[in-house]
Amino acid sequence: MKNRLLEIVLEKSFQYAEEPIFKLVSGGVSNFYFNCKPTMLDPEGKELIGRLVFARIRDLEVSGIGGLELGSVPISSAVSLISQLEGKPIKEFIVRKEKKDHGIPAKVEGDFSQGERVVVVDDVITTGGSTIKAIEAVEGLGLKVAKVVVLVDREEMNGRQNIEKLCPEVEALITRSEVMELYKRRKAHSGNPVPR
C-alpha cells in the first residue's frame, strides 16, 4: 500500500525545479513542492491514506482523530470511515483556523470530553506550525494527544523536532527522501538528467 501511495504522491502532489522557485507558507523558498490535496482527494489516494494511518493507530486506544483545517480534514475523514468499517470506530474532529463568529463559537468541532486520547494528523510537515496549532487547540480542551501522523515529512526546518517537543510520537507515512529517490529512479529510466 505504501509503495502505491508513494507513486500517487509523486504523480499528483510533487513538483521539482533545479532552482528554488516554490514559495512556502513558512516564507522560505524551495526547489521542491508538495501539494498533497490532489492525492488526498483522489479516491484511491484517500483510501490508502485512511488504511495506512489506521494501521498505525488502531492499537493506541484513541477515541478521536483530526487536525487543523484544511490539510488534515481529508486524512481524518478517511481514517474515521476506515475505522468504522474495521469495527473500531474513531471519531473525527476539525480544528478551525479561526473561531466561528456565529452560533456557539467553537475552535474545535467534534464530540469529545476532557481526558479523551486523540491523534493529530496533517498533510505536510515543514516547520510543524499547523500541527502544533492543532495540538495546542485540542490540549486546551483537555484532550490528550497520543500521536501525530502526517502524510509527508519534508525533512527540513526542524519541523518534526518542533512537533516532538509537544508530542514525542510523530510518524510520517512518506518522507521527502523517499519521494526524491523514486523521482530520481523515474528520471533515470526516462533518460532525462537526474537532479543532484
Can you put this structure into words, describing what you see?
Helix 1 (2-13) crosses helix 3 (43-57) and helix 1 (2-13) crosses helix 7. The protein starts with a helix and ends in a 6-residue tail after the last helix. It contains 7 helices and 10 strands. A hairpin with a 5-residue loop joins strand 2 (22-23) and strand 3 (29-30). The strands form 3 sheets. Strands 7-6-5-8-9-10 form a 6-stranded mixed sheet, with helices on both faces. A two-stranded antiparallel sheet has the order 1-4. It is an alpha/beta fold and 196 residues long.
Reported CATH architecture: 3-Layer(aba) Sandwich
The residue-averaged pLDDT reads: 92
Strand content: 15-25%
What is the number of strand segments?
10
Low-confidence stretches: none
The order of strands across the largest sheet is 7-6-5-8-9-10
- Topology as a string of helices (H) and strands (E): HEEEEHHEHEEEHEHEH
CATH fold field value? Rossmann fold
Q: Kindly state the percentage of residues in helix.
A: 25-40%
Using only C-alpha atoms, the radius of gyration works out to: 17 Å
Q: What is the SS-derived class? A: alpha/beta
CATH class annotation = Alpha Beta
Based on Cα principal axes, name the global outline: globular
Distance between the termini: 28 Å
